[in-house]
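Slide 14.
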Amino acid sequence: MPLPPHSLPSCPFCAIAAAYPPSSTAFLPPSSATTSSITTEPLPNPPLARVLLSTPHLVAFLDHAPIARGHVLIATRQHREKLSDVSVEEGRAVGAWMGILCRAVITSVLGKEEEAGGTKARGAETGVEDDAVGDWNVVQNNGARAAQVVPHVHFHIIPRPGDVPEIKNRSWTVFGKGQREELDDEDAEVLIDDMRKQLAKEIERVRRIEGEEGLRVLLGEQGKGREYKL
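Slide 15: predicted structure.
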C-alpha cells in the first residue's frame, strides 16, 4: 500500500497510517465485520496495529508496549517530527478529538474497573451525562532529549488504574512514565472492540450535547445526519 504524502518509508507510524486509511463509516477503523474502508486494498493480516480512529488527519491505536492497559497513541497521519511542524488543520483535529478519545479510552478501561469495585461513576455524582471515570495522563514529547522514541508527532493517553501508588510515584506519573509490557493480543482485541463502541457513543454524545454544528466541526460535512453505531 503506498504511503501518504509527507511520509517516511522507515517510520512505523507512517506505515500504520498507510495501512489504515480514513474509514468510510463514522471515521472508525475498517473491520472485517462492521465497516469498510475507502480503499479497496486488503488490510494487513496480522494487523500492524489495533486502530481505534482513522481520519484524514489522525490515526489512534493501541501502544504495542503499553505502560498501562488501554495505553493509546494519537499520531498525525502525515509525518511531522515535532509538534512545531504540525499544521493548523492538524492541530484543530487533535483538539477536536482529544477529549472524545480520552472519554472513550478511560470509560472502556477504568469505568468498568471502578464500577466493579463498587465506586460510583463521576457522572452519577455530578449529574454530567456520560462523564469519564478515573485518572489518566496525556503526554507528548518532542525530540530525543525529551524522551521521544519515534520521531513522528504522537500523543499518549495513559490510563492510571487504582492500584498505582499515587503519592510514592507521583514524580513519574506526572510525565507519563511507568513499566512497559508487551501488548496481550487476545486482550487487545477485546479492548479495542470495546473502545470502538465507546467512541461511537461519544460521537453521538457530541450530537446530543452540541448539536449538528458540533458534529460538523468534529467530522466535517460527512457527519451530518448520520448515526454512529457498530
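Speaker note: The chain has five helices and five strands.
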